[in-house]
Design brief:
Helix content: 55-70%
Number of helices: 16
Shape: elongated
Structural class: mainly alpha
Largest sheet: none
Distance between the termini: 63 Å
Radius of gyration: 23 Å
Length: 266
């Protein structure tokens, strides 16, 4: 999976690479299994075709090197393998499938970004030579298709937060898709913190208080809920997403204060 065809590989290829001994090992070529390991939604027939194209053209070590770090020749050969074996429509569908797997189901937005990704020129792709550039380039495409905002809105709903159109548009401008990607494991603190910063920048007090009221709908005594929700607005989303212990401390303090007030100090 490559940046010229699949946006995810740019960021993840290095993490997927097996430990391969360097100089002493003879040159080998990526197998169909190697191609599938980096591109899980690719069909077996296409993976076999692509691996066959790479035989004697692209080393296995190069296949497992992030696309942005490859030489110009290696990038061109990498992309040519997909172009040789798949039509533009098939490559576009593959990008959409990979991003759906990584970012969730957002059919219209991912359809838009997949078409744009598949049509990037070789000259454009050859100009990307760092991970930072790769992420920024992908984000520019996602942003133009409003995909980042859609993913943030989906994540928000999972925490009982309902973004307004203006808040979703802000998240689309301020956010990046990179910390949102599922990497088949729990998000890191760095990812959660990055997500929290976007919500802190974009979510207004009214939306945040409404979120807390929904989260606390079963809290008793019920008359303390409004007070707890109003005090909990002071908790940053960086804490909400990035610090379980900090969140627990802050919510316990808010609850203790408000329950005491609601029960008259008894």
């Amino acid at each position: 999976m490559r940046i010229g065809l699949i946006a995810v590989l740019v960021v993840l290829a290095a993490a997927l690479a097996p430990a391969v001994a360097a100089a002493a090992q003879p040159v080998t070529w990526p197998s169909a299994a190697d191609v599938l390991a980096s591109t899980p939604t690719l069909g077996a027939k296409d993976a076999s075709c692509i691996a066959g194209y790479y035989d004697r053209r692209l080393s296995r070590a190069a296949w497992y090197t992030p696309y942005y770090a490859l030489t110009a020749r290696q990038k061109l050969v990498t992309d040519k393998g997909f172009e040789h074996c798949m039509t533009l429509a098939e490559r576009t569908a593959l990008i959409a499938h990979e991003d759906t797997r990584s970012l969730g189901k957002h059919t219209a937005e991912i359809g838009c970004s997949a078409r744009a990704m598949a049509r990037r020129t070789s000259a454009h792709l050859l100009s990307i030579t760092s991970r930072v550039q790769a992420i920024a380039d992908n984000d520019a495409v996602y942003r133009s298709c409003k995909l980042i905002g859609a993913v943030y809105a989906s994540l928000a709903r999972s925490t009982e937060l309902r973004l307004t159109p203006a808040e979703q548009a802000c998240a689309n401008r301020a956010g990046s898709a990179d910390p949102l990607r599922s990497r088949a494991k729990q998000p890191t603190v760095k990812q959660r913190t990055a997500i929290g910063k976007v919500f802190d920048a974009c979510v207004g007090r009214a939306s945040e208080q409404a979120m807390w009221e929904r989260l606390l709908k079963d809290f008793r005594p019920a008359r303390a809920v409004d007070c707890i929700a109003r005090r909990s607005v002071a908790i940053t989303f960086v804490t909400f997403f990035g610090s379980r212990s900090g969140l627990q401390r802050a919510t316990k303090q808010a609850a203790a204060h408000c329950v005491l007030a609601a029960t008259g100090g008894s």
